[in-house]
Each structure stands twice: as C-alpha cells, then as structure tokens.
Amino acid sequence: MTDNYIVSASSLLTNRAFSVPDGASLTVSGITKESFPEVKSKLLHILGNGPCEVAGRQTLLTQAESAGEVCDLFIPATDFLQKQRFGFYDLIYIIHRLRDEDGCEWDKAQTHESIRSNAVEEAYELVEAINNHDLDNMREETGDVLLQGAFHAVMAEGAGEYDISDVISELCKKLIFRHPHVFGEVKANNAEEALAAWEKAKMAEKKQRNVTERMT
Hints:
The protein is an alpha+beta fold and about 220 residues long. The chain is built from 9 helices and 5 strands. The chain folds into 3 domains: about 80 residues; about 90 residues, MazG-like (Helix Hairpins); about 40 residues, no CATH class. The protein has a 5-stranded mixed beta sheet with strand order 1-2-5-3-4. It is globular and about 65 Å long. The model has no long low-confidence stretch (mean pLDDT about 95).
C-alpha cells in the first residue's frame, strides 16, 4: 500500500525545501482559487508534469485548474526511474545503489584517495563556467562539485566513518554559529560588519574546539 503524504497549500508555499517522501503519493489540501496557480507552479518545479486529480477530475498537472473556492490536489506516487525531477536524497540513493554489490564496478572500486583529484578538477571547471558567465555549464558543474562531496560521504558511511547527515549537520551548525547577525543578537548593517561578525564567531568557534580537544 502506497503512503499518502498530505500537506497544506500554505505549508507547501512557505517551505523552501519541500520534498515528497520516496514512493509516496501527495495530497495538497486547502488550495484557494487565488493560490492555485502558485501551488501548481511549485509542484511542477519540484515534481515535473504528470497525472493528478482535482475534485475527482483526472488530468495532467500542466492542465489542472482550480475547482471552487477551495480544493485539494492529488498526485499519485511515481516510480523512481520515471521521475522528471529529483531531490538531494535521490542523489544519495543513486550513489548508494551504484556502490551496491550488484552496482557499478567502477563506483564500487573507488576510495577517498582514488577520486580526490576529481574535487579539484570539478571545482576548476565550475570556476571557468562562472568566469564565462555560462549558466548552463554552471548548473552542470555545480552538480559535479556536489557529487564529489556526496560520493565521499557515501563511501565514509560504508566504512563506518561518517554519513551525509553528519556532513549536513556540521555544516548547518557552522553556518548558524558564524552568522550571529542573522540567527543571534549581533547587528550588522552592511557587508563589512557581517564579515567582521563572521570572523569573530569563527575565532570563538576555534577557541571552543581547542578547549574541547584539550579536555578529551
């Protein structure tokens, strides 16, 4: 039986990192006539075009229309390989799948050391795309840089070292701690003051780390 993930239209529109659990259908509830176009646009960006149902009428998402002052929209579950749009954890799943026992022999054979030069090469290619103001290549090369970090995290998980959740958690904690002018009480009225707040927080963070290391 397929799980049905239910989200309100207001939550969908305000959540900047919305995703549908793998293998689940989706119901967006409480869509007003005024918000329907925005909900539809966001769903197309997240999921791509596909079958949906509004007030018992089955159609494609691109052709869906509001039904009354308030309505719900249902999108059936999509097979993984039939997806038009993917999320971050789809990438992690793919890398795990490539390194499975019956996966790709090349991907299975890689180590942190064997692909370390790829991180530098992909970063240089991204820099080149930025210098050339080439948005298409920037999108592609950003993905290639992201792949390097994700690949290392999946390999590390297999070795019992760390996983992608550890990576993301550490990064988020760092960003929050080093932006006291956003997440704390520090005031920064311009870029220079923001940078100064970042540097001060960074120094405090390193002092805390040194104290912790001495205590362990």
